[in-house]
Q: What sequence folds into this?
């Protein structure tokens, strides 16, 4: 008797109500990717109207320019997935540029200095995460404070003076060297993006971050260590920021204490226009990297068609707002 | 055939539970048990101790006295996790699912099968989720995202999640409060199936007819004491209602002597919205309290918001303090001296969760002629009720003489109901004519307070609205 109840009308009706999901799915797909469609159109505009835009040289240049923001965006995606934010990444990049340059002065092997600096960033990120999770202070405030502390430290270390990096190999490994026609910076971007995709979309910890940001109560109730997921996200974000800052120093052959100023805004913009929700729970690493590259294309394209850098900033801001409004959730 | 005839061993049994919050004794020596394959309904007015008892069962509260036996073994650990391991799970009113994730991902959240290198075994999750759904015979797509699913389907996912974690006792707290009539049928079919599988279910609801349809046994909690269990085929609705009714002494409100209400300060004619409300007329006189009753989802909240001009598609004529105001726009209402104390103060009210005592003050702080109070008791944490009552007892009678018309919206339950009734006795009996006309919607809508007086009896299956 119970079986006949189950197969009769009510369930069928509810499923019928759910039949529209195929259409909903298609609609969501279009909605999720509408920003990318807009990116494509704008890029097409530059290709048609900017001289020599569609060339490997341009692509390489944009790849080199955007590598720093792309790499930082990978880490930021994880923090934002957890419904947190990290405003200190720009300042951390500055500090890492300084600390890295000073580290190089000790005569350390260049290849060894890279993991050391990455670990240094992870440590700072861990401190952010510990303050957020243990003291229950909103990450906006914690990392805003950390922004000030880190940039102040970067300036204090050498009394605001840049630190030169004599070694040429570091610059080659980190940014300027080429492999199979692509600059090292692009290779690093690909490496970080792949690692980020693995952690966020394939591994259990990434799933836990998404659940934490999606519904923290549900995540806790399902036995997920929400605090641990956040700690890992902050640590990864710090590691990415530190690596990117060190890359900036290697590229310029000098640690400059204000090299990362304002970078956090570009990074957060890249993540958000890449489709990651500022309210946590949904997003993708690849979207963030596309967002970063788009910001690069926009900046480069506007220069090529001859707009002054001041107007560029305005156009960039408008496009970011439009992109986010299209992508709103 | 029924579980009452053939007593099965108790899956969970609570013995002599006592719970105090400070000097306030919420549960006094309560016994409660759930057998395999039965639905045990738990009834009681708000604040009677239902949710406290369930929180004790789930390990959220630690009992001051008493023991909990699982399959005859006393449970020593108090943690929620230990309860989950012992097989006690709760389906929450606010569901504990991640909306952006798929059904399968939610079912295995927090215990994902892993491949080499910490990778999630997606294929296995999908396969096992499909099996799980098939075994229960639910019509769920494992790949559908939770946010796309109707509420009843989300509930099924919750139930599956509990079952897949080895739950043998499932507590359902007001499971039908957000369901349509048709979805309710699905839930009841699901419950029948769980019973057949030997799962014990605690069913908390206010709807009498539903309980008599679903439950095998029922227990009634009143003022922290439990009565029952009774087999549902050996007790009638009026008897249960009598068991639930509180003695009049509980209500502290003593309205002042009969008072003549003054002029009509607020009048609504033909208020309609696209979906919920149809042709509602309402008049409030100075110094009068008008109660509006109805079930969850019947449109009470919408009405309160529409009266305050918060519903964009509302139509109708609104007269406030003698001047005509459109159905829309809140600012002119505020200027004309109207205020709303919202139902969910945390979401809709000002800033921080306010002290209940301040709630009344908000409406009075500015020049107010008409105040709307949304479920003052429901929105107030149980243990704050006495305090709120005191405050209201202080505020409302004062408000009356000052010419404050109050529209109070709340389900007809809890201590305030009586107060509202008593107050409404003081109202002009003629008011019933101009009172709230509420169209019934489906089988679910409640009648307005005035409509009830006129003998509509629309909320007959609603316990409190006898």
A:
């Amino acid at each position: 008797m119970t079986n006949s109840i189950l197969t009769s009308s009510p369930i069928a009706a509810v499923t019928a109500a759910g039949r529209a999901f195929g259409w909903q799915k298609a609609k969501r797909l279009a909605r999720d990717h509408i920003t990318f469609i807009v990116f494509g159109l704008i890029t097409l505009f530059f290709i048609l109207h900017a001289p020599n835009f569609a060339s490997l040289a341009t692509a390489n240049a944009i790849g080199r320019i955007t590598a720093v923001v792309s790499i930082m965006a990978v880490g930021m995606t994880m923090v934002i997935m957890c419904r947190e934010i990290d405003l200190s990444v720009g300042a951390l990049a500055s500090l890492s540029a300084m600390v890295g340059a000073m580290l190089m002065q000790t005569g350390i092997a260049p290849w060894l200095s890279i993991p050391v600096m990455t670990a240094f960033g992870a440590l700072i990120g861990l401190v952010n995460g510990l303050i957020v999770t243990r003291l229950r202070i909103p990450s906006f405030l914690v990392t805003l404070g950390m922004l000030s502390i880190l940039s102040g430290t970067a300036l204090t270390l050498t009394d605001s003076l840049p630190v030169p990096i004599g070694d040429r190999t570091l610059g080659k490994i980190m940014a300027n060297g080429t492999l199979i026609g692509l600059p090292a910076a692009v290779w690093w971007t690909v490496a970080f993006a792949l690692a980020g995709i693995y952690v966020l979309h394939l591994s259990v910890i990434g799933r836990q971050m998404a659940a934490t940001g999606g519904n923290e109560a549900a995540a806790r109730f399902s036995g997920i260590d929400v605090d641990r997921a956040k700690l890992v996200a902050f640590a990864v974000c710090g590691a990415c920021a530190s690596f990117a800052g060190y890359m900036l120093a290697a590229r310029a052959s000098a640690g400059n204490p204000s090299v990362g100023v304002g970078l956090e805004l570009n990074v957060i913009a890249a993540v958000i226009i890449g489709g990651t929700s500022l309210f946590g729970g949904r997003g993708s690493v690849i979207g963030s990297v596309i967002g970063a590259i788009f910001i690069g294309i926009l900046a480069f394209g506007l220069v090529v068609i001859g707009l002054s850098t001041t107007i560029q900033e305005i156009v960039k801001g408008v496009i970011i707002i439009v992109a986010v409004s299209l992508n709103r959730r | 055939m029924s579980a009452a005839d053939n007593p099965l061993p108790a899956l969970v049994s609570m013995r002599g539970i006592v719970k105090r919050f400070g000097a306030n004794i919420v549960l006094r020596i309560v016994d409660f048990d759930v057998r395999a394959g039965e639905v045990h309904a738990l009834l009681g007015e708000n604040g009677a101790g239902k949710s406290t008892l369930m929180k004790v069962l789930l390990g959220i509260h630690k009992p001051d006295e008493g023991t909990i036996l699982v399959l005859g073994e006393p449970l020593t650990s108090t943690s929620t996790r230990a309860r989950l391991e012992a097989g006690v799970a709760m389906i929450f009113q606010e569901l504990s699912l991640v909306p952006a994730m798929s059904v399968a991902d939610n079912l295995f959240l927090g215990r994902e099968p892993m491949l080499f290198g910490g990778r999630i075994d997606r294929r296995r999750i999908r396969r096992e989720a499909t099996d799980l759904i098939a075994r229960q015979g639910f019509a769920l797509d494992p790949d559908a995202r939770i946010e796309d699913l109707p509420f009843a389907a989300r509930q099924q996912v919750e139930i599956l999640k509990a079952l897949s974690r080895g739950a043998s006792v499932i507590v359902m707290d007001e499971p039908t409060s957000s369901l349509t009539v048709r979805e309710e049928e699905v839930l009841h079919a699901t419950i029948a199936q769980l019973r057949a599988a030997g799962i014990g279910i605690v069913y908390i609801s206010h709807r009498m007819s539903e309980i008599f349809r679903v439950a095998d046994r029922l227990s009634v909690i009143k003022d922290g004491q439990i009565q029952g269990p009774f087999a549902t085929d050996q007790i009638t609705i009026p008897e249960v209602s009598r068991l639930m009714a509180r003695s009049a002494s509980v209500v502290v409100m003593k309205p002042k002597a009969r008072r003549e209400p003054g002029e009509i300060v607020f009048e609504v004619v033909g208020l309609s919205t696209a979906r919920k409300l149809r042709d509602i007329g309402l008049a409030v006189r100075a110094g009068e309290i008008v109660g509006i009753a109805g079930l969850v989802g019947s449109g009470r909240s919408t009405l309160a918001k529409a009266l305050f001009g918060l519903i964009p598609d509302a139509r109708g004529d609104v007269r406030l303090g003698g001047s005509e105001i459109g159905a829309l726009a809140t600012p002119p209402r505020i200027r004309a001296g109207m205020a709303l104390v919202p139902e969910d103060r945390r979401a809709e009210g000002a800033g921080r969760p306010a002290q209940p005592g301040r709630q009344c003050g908000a409406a009075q702080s500015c020049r107010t002629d008409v105040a709307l109070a949304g479920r003052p008791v429901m929105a107030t944490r149980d243990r704050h009720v006495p305090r709120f009552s005191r405050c209201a007892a202080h505020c409302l009678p004062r408000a009356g003489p000052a010419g404050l018309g109050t529209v109070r919206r709340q389900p007809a339950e809890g201590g305030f109901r009586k107060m509202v009734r008593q107050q409404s006795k003081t109202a002009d009996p003629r008011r019933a004519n101009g009172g709230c006309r509420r169209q019934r919607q489906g089988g679910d809508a409640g009648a307005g307070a005035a409509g009830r007086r006129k003998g509509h009896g629309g909320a007959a299956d609603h316990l409190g609205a006898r």
Observations:
- Chain A has a mean pLDDT of 84.
- Chain A touches chain B at residues 2-3, 5-7, 10-15, 17-18, 21, 24-25, 198, 202-205, 207-208, 210-211, 214-215, 217-219, 221-224, 281-282 (CB under 8 Å).
- The radius of gyration of chain A is 22 Å.
